[in-house]
Backbone:
């Protein structure tokens, strides 16, 4: 027994004299918020990559190019400062194309808002077969601009077009729809109205159907007729939707290009050429990429000003 106790005590002394080995402790685990942030950045990374490559970089490079004399011929790619902007501000053709764009925006925005409101009001009263009316109103919006332009080009044909043929049958003179500088822009507005009014119509219809029906019931009990209800209840309730539609329509009209280029190519005599077409022709027909970039940034500044004005008006109305 004594020998066994002695060996046990010696084993304990040996164990106590040997260095203590400790197991490494793991570091603090990342918090749940940090993991969520890392996961979120992982999902957003592909979009951010495309955003930087296809939006931010072209904007910065285009701004740099507007300060150079860059040309497709490579004749002068050196920095020239604000010379392109000074030339653009003194360019009569640029101002005329910008005036055409503003003119189209004004004369197209008003009917595109009013006609859409009337269409939505007529359908909201409860016409039978509403799905058919909705389809017929919205279907043209699904067509490509090339189809719409070709369709109206044939409709406006001076000799074989359906419109002039109908005018001749009722004894009215034929109209050179796309060849008369005083009429060509209005012809494009009519085509644009038929093509795009369905989108505004859907926005108005959705807003009308969200107006509480109790308002109309209370007004009818007070003796208000349909017209009184429309002007006293419907229109005030549609004010936010109207502001949004006007803003979207102005921005869309300022960027007009497709139907003008396909129907009139900017003619006759440049009376319908928008500023986007002028930028395209200057850069890829006149080979002056730097100058066309400067014109595009002047136009971009105009769009920013319009957007800020609309934003301020919207904030004030909501406040």
Residues:
């Amino acid at each position: 027994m004594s020998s066994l106790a002695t060996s046990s005590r010696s084993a304990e002394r040996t164990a106590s004299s040997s260095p203590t080995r400790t197991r490494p402790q793991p570091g603090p685990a990342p918090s749940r918020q940090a993991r969520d942030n890392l996961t979120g950045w992982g999902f957003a990374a592909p979009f951010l990559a495309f955003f930087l490559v296809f939006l931010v970089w072209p904007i910065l490079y285009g701004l740099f190019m507007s300060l150079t004399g860059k040309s497709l011929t490579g004749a002068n790619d050196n920095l020239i400062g604000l010379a392109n902007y000074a030339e653009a501000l003194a360019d009569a053709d640029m101002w005329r194309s910008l005036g055409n764009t503003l003119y189209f925006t004004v004369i197209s925005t008003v009917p595109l808002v009013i006609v859409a409101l009337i269409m939505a009001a007529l359908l909201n009263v409860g016409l039978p077969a509403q799905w058919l009316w909705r389809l017929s109103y919205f279907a043209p919006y699904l067509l490509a601009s090339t189809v719409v332009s070709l369709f109206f080009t044939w409709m406006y044909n001076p000799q074989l077009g359906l419109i002039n043929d109908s005018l001749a049958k009722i004894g009215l003179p034929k109209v050179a729809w796309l060849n008369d500088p005083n009429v060509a822009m209005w012809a494009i507005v009519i085509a644009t109205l038929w093509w795009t009014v369905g989108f505004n119509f859907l926005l108005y219809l959705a807003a009308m159907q969200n107006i509480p029906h109790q308002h109309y019931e209370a007004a009818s009990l007070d003796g208000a007729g349909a017209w009184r209800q429309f002007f006293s209840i419907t229109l005030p309730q549609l004010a936010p939707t109207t502001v949004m539609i006007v803003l979207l329509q102005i921005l869309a009209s300022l960027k007009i290009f497709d139907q003008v280029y396909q129907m009139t190519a900017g003619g006759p005599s440049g009376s319908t050429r928008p500023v986007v077409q002028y930028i395209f022709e200057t850069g890829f027909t006149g080979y002056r990429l730097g100058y066309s970039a400067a014109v595009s940034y002047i136009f971009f500044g105009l769009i920013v000003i319009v957007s800020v004005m609309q934003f301020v008006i919207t904030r004030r109305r909501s406040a």
